[in-house]
Amino acid sequence: MKKRVLFICLGNICRSPSAEAVFTGIVKEKRLSEEFEIDSAGTSGWHEGEPADRRMKSHAIKRGFKLTSLSRQINPDTDFDRFDFIIGMDDANLQVLKSMARNKDDLAKIYKMTDFSKEYTYDEVPDPYYGGDAGFELVLDLLEDACEGFLETVLEI
């Protein structure tokens, strides 16, 4: 049975589509693509239907990751049923996700991306939207590290 993973950030144009692309790349490299369904969404619908931020896409492509998804807002009525892991990028995302949870089973599916970090000690994946190039690179560094850690965790379950 496939493990279903949903990555969440605020607008679903920088961090969560990057997490989706990074994790997709890692599972593909390890020949595990058939074992996962991977998606991303935002807690807001501000950018619904839009592609990922062009700056984020540019930085990701340099590392071999393609951000192809279109932004969408999380739908608690369907996404909590569909996904096994719902992973927020920061504490604000987690707070919103927990407020959307319908029951303890939904709450048990919510995780924070940096909880899976192996090398970095950041407690959140910072939003790079209003920053410069270094912010986008940091997001990718953190996601590469945490996605590796997440995959290790999932494979142990």
Q: What's the CATH H-level superfamily name?
A: Response regulator
SSE order: EHEHHEHHEH
Number of H/I helices = 6
Strand order of the largest sheet: 2-1-3-4
Topology:
Blueprint: E1 3-9, H1 15-29, E2 36-42, H2 54-62, H3 76-82, E3 85-88, H4 91-100, H5 104-107, E4 110-112, H6 133-156
Parallel strand pairs: 1-2, 1-3, 3-4
Helix pairs in contact: 1-6, 2-6
In short:
The chain has six helices and four strands, in the order βαβααβααβα.
Can you characterise this structure?
The protein is of the alpha/beta class and 157 residues long. The chain has one domain (3-156): Response regulator (Rossmann fold). The protein is built from 6 helices and 4 strands, in the order E-H-E-H-H-E-H-H-E-H. The longest helix is centred in the C-terminal third of the chain and has 24 residues, at 133-156. The radius of gyration is 14 Å and the shape is globular. The chain starts with a strand and ends with a helix. The mean pLDDT is 97.
Descriptive terms for the model:
single chain, 157 residues, alpha/beta, Rossmann fold, 13% strand
